[in-house]
Amino acid sequence: MGMPAIFIRLHGCNLRCSWCDSKYTWNDSEDYKEMSEKQILKKIQKYRTKHIIITGGEPLIQEIYPLVRDLKRADYKIHIETNGTIYKPFLRQLDCVVVSPKPPSANVKATFKIKEFKRLKNAYFKVVIKNESDWKWAKKLSKQINPKILYLIPEGGVDFSFLSKKIKKLDDNMRIGIQLHKIIWGDKRGV
Questions:
Q1: What is this structure's pTM?
Q2: Rounded to whole angstroms, how far apart are CA atoms 3 and 87?
Q3: CA pair distance 15, 85, nearest whole angstrom
Q4: Fewest C-beta in 10 Å: which of 2, 19, 47, 144?
Q5: Cα separation of 53 and 1, whole Å?
Q6: Domains in the chain with CATH codes
């Protein structure tokens, strides 16, 4: 967090979270461009940073290993953000895996592969928190993944009024996080 990174946002998701901030990735009518691994590498070469964040929707519903392989060969540091419903062995090769299982306010029914992701040395967890029900759910998750770090992100990314009341009740492995890009750019795409 807090360093320049290139977002590679992939199309499609296997969940439909009520408060999703990238619903445009769900819909085929939205403006998106299909690109090969070679086209992606060419496009990102113009940026100074070597940090990549692959996200979605849900990036693991697609076959992204060829992209990961090519990015690694080009010496990029690769982070992926996943909802945690799909596990693939190549994730061990990445620099960071951010697992974001969905709390009750997301209004989704899903099975999250917490045990598989907890075993990854390069993983940490983050959960969007909207209300008391999410807070209680996150407290249970915190114990389940301990000693892995769990970042709590306020729903919408910038209003900390609910989480600020909980700061003294954090477990040792819990942190309050921010979505810095939302503070700087809001919901603007392509920045």
A1: 0.89
A2: 27
A3: 9
A4: 2
A5: 11
A6: 6-185 (3.20.20.70)
- Both tokens of 57, joined, read 């929707």
pLDDT in tens, 36-77: 999 999 999 999 999 999 998 899 999 999 999 999 999 999
Closest CA to 83 of 161, 25, 5, 146: 25
Burial class from Cβ neighbours inside 10 Å (0-12, 13-18, 19+) for residue 178 reads middle
Give the C-alpha distances (Å, rounded to integers) separating 97 from 60, 92, 104, 120, 169: 12, 8, 22, 8, 26
Q: How confident is the model at residue 159 (pLDDT cuts 50, 70, 90)?
A: low
Could you give the C-alpha distances from 37 to 21, 65, 73, 76, in angstroms and in order? 26, 10, 12, 14
pLDDT of residue 93: 94
